[in-house]
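Recap from last week: sequence in, structure out.
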Amino acid sequence: MSLNKTITPATAPNTAYMRETANPQLSSTLFGRLPLEIRDMIYVECWRASGLRQHVFLRDGRLTHWPCTLVSDERDERLEELHRMIEVQGTQPRSRTRSLVLHGKWARRFSSPWHNHWRCEEEMEGSMADDEGTRSGTLFLSILLTCKRTYLESRPSLYASLTPILTDLSSAHALLALSPATISSRLHSLSLSLALPVATLHQHRLRTHTTDAPDAWAGLCTALSNLARFDALRDVAVRLAVAVDDRDPGADEAGRMVGLPGGRGDAPAWPDVRERWALAAVRGVLARRLTLWLPRVAPTYTYPEWMRTYLYLDEEEEEEDNEDGGGSGRGRGPGRGVPFRRLERYEALPPMRRRGDGRVEPRMDGPRGVGSGTGYGRGEGDRGKEKEKEVGGTRLQRTRRSVRRLVGGLRLS
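Predicted C-alpha cells:
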C-alpha cells in the first residue's frame, strides 16, 4: 500500500526569505530588552500550556492536532471492563462460543482507531460536537503567526519540546514520509501507536525483489531511520498491535472474519506475527533510539519451537532456551539479538470480531491457547498449569535457576 497518491505533500516555508525581510523590532520590549534565553523560556511555557504531547491526524484531508491526556503508566480501562464482563459471565451458563458482545459506548472504545488513546479521541469528538465543529485553540499558531521574527525564533524550541503522537499510517506518512523537509526534520521525539494487519507487518520480508517499492510500514520505518540518522530525531516510541484487514479474503463485507488461511475463523492475534520480520526494517541509529512496546502473550500459550526463532525473547526465556539446547543467543541487551534501546511488553486486548450490526465481539476462546492475550478468563486449571510451568522443567534446569538466584543474592549482599 502506497500513500504517495492519496496525500498531498506539505510545502516547506521559505525561511531564508523570512530572515532577509524580518523586522528586528528592537524598540519592542520582547526583542529589545529581553535576552534570547528568556524569550526561549517564554516560548516553552506557551508550548507547555498547549500540551507537549499532541495527537497528529488527518481530518477532512488535512493534518490537525489534539492534546494527549493519556498518562504514561495509566492502565487501559478497557481491560478492566473486560475483567468485569468476564466475572459477570462466570455466573451465567457458558455459551458455545464463549464470546463477549459489547454495545454502544464500549463497542466504540474497543474499536477506536486511536487504540490505547481512545479516551483522547472521545474528548476530541466531544469537544468538536459541543463547539459545533470548532475546537478551542492552542498557542502554537498564535505564537508562530505573530511576526516573522517570532516565527523564526520560536520554531526550534517548539520542535524540540513537542512529541507528535500518530495512530495510523496515513497520518504518519503525511507528517513524515511525504514531507521530510518540513517540520519532521526538526522533531526531537516521536510516538506511534499502530494496529496493523499481519500481512502489512510481514510484507517487507515477503518482497519478491529488492528493487520493489517498499510497503507503507517499511516506508515509514525508512523515513524514521533517515530522520534519526541525518536529522534531529533522538527519541522514538512505537507501540504495535494486530488489526483485522477488512480487505483480507477472510473478511466479509461487514468486516467479520469468516475463514482465515488455515481454517481459522477467529481474528488474527499477536502470536501470528513473526516479530523479527515485522521489525526487519528497523535498524541502525533508529533501533538504538527506539523504545518498542509489543503485546504480551498469555502465559498459558506456548509458541512452537520453530516460531521462537522469529521472536524477541526476554533474558529469562533466553536462558531457558539455551539450557534446552537452543543456543540462540537472543536476548534484550545490546549485541544479543535485540538492537533496540528498550523492549517492553504490554497487556493487550483480545482478538476482535466486528459484527455486521456495529457491535464488537472480543474472542476469549482462542483456539491456540491465546485466549485474550491478557490473562483474563483463565480458570483454576490454567493457573495451575501456569504455576507448574513456572516451577517445572528438568531437575538440572531447576538446579541451575536456583544457583543463579543464590549467586545473584550473594552479589547484591
